[in-house]
Design goal:
Blueprint lengths: L2 H6 L3 H13 L4 H11 E9 L2 E4 H15 L4 E5 L4 E3 L2 E10 L6 E10 L2 E9 L5
Parallel strand pairs: 1-7
Antiparallel strand pairs: 1-2, 3-5, 4-5, 5-6, 6-7
């Protein structure tokens, strides 16, 4: 199978949407743990400014740090579908009250190997001036 055929088999949008909603947006730890194990490689590495986390526990720790500081009415959303090629995908997202403007926006960039996320780079947009 050529690289192009392998790339065509990757559902960048499906995987990245699931990563955002089923992991980063999931407050139920049992559901989140199951999704982490399904969507990420066991040795996944998460990079955020000032943060580097490894493995399933690392992902869970990063997510818990985000959700524990946010009001329960905050939800994630996306700006269009995720796109990718050659095993790298990107998706723009927002986080804030379900019925209000976003409080935080950013971009996730992932590397995907064998249908699972192996690296996640989270870029937080600077606040609007």
């Amino acid at each position: 199978m050529t690289d192009q055929q392998n790339d065509a088999a990757v559902d960048y949008d499906g995987l990245m949407q699931a990563h955002l909603y089923r992991v980063f947006g999931e407050r139920d730890t049992i559901k989140r743990t199951a999704a982490i194990r399904e969507l990420y490689a066991e040795d996944v590495v998460v990079y955020e400014e000032g943060v580097e986390a490894v493995g399933y526990a690392g992902v869970d720790h990063v997510v818990d740090a985000v959700l524990s500081k946010a009001p329960p009415i905050f939800v994630f959303g996306t700006y269009g579908p995720a796109v990718g090629h050659h095993g790298v995908g990107r998706m723009r997202w927002h986080f804030g009250p379900a019925d209000g403007p976003p409080v935080v926006t950013g971009l996730d960039v992932v590397e995907i190997v064998n249908g699972r996320i192996t690296t996640l780079h989270v870029f937080i947009d600077p606040p609007a001036a």
